[in-house]
Amino acid sequence: MSTQSVTNETTLTVVKHLINGRDDTFIATATGLTVTAVQDIKISHGYPDLSKMEWSRDILERRINEPAASAALPSPTIRSAAPPADPRGTTRNTPRPTDPRPTVVSAREVKPSANELIVVASNSPKARTRALGVKVAALIGDLSQRLAAEERERVAQAAEKAANAKRLQRIEELEAELKKLRAKTRSTKTAPPLGAPAAKVREWASQQGIGCPAYGKIPNTVRDAYDAAHAAA
């Protein structure tokens, strides 16, 4: 039996049983429907979301009660009355009141979520439907894991990028400090002291009997001997 051949009253009974937590077998026995018909009603009326099922219940009650309320109301009696006389001897045409348009309440179709379909499929009497539900659940689980892994990878990459930026900033700061220290060292470094005048070294070498050319560069051995002799002094 499909949901199209089930009355609103029976559908309302099924929805109320679902809200009260009854299982498919109990509802099928209580209403005379097949388990498949009960499951069709579950899918189309928001199961297992309690708020959706309560919303479906209210819509069904409204559908059932509105025709009954309309049938119980007496038909209005329309009395014809002569239009009031005009003082000038003519009659005024009074416009006839229009009947109010009936309010049409359209039920919003409740589409089940993927998890709801998986739950319904797990209770299906057909093995193929149950197997399909298991496959869909596995795919959804795999998708969730992949999305979670991508999110963790994105967070890790963002953290690594921030750490690299921080390290580069620290390197730039250290290079700037080193540059300042080098500039300070160059400004405070003193030039090496100059050696004794060449004429004085030659004179000393002549007195000491050390050979030294009269012109040109003084040999390093002569200058070193001069420095050593005067340092000892």
TrEMBL record:
The keyword Transcription does not apply. It holds the Pfam family Lsr2_DNA-bd. Residues 68-106 are annotated as: Disordered. Residues 198-229 form the Lsr2 DNA-binding domain. Keywords: Coiled coil, DNA-binding. GO terms for molecular function: acyltransferase activity; DNA binding. Residues 148-191 form a coiled coil. It comes from the Bacteria. This is Lsr2 protein. It comes from Branchiibius hedensis.
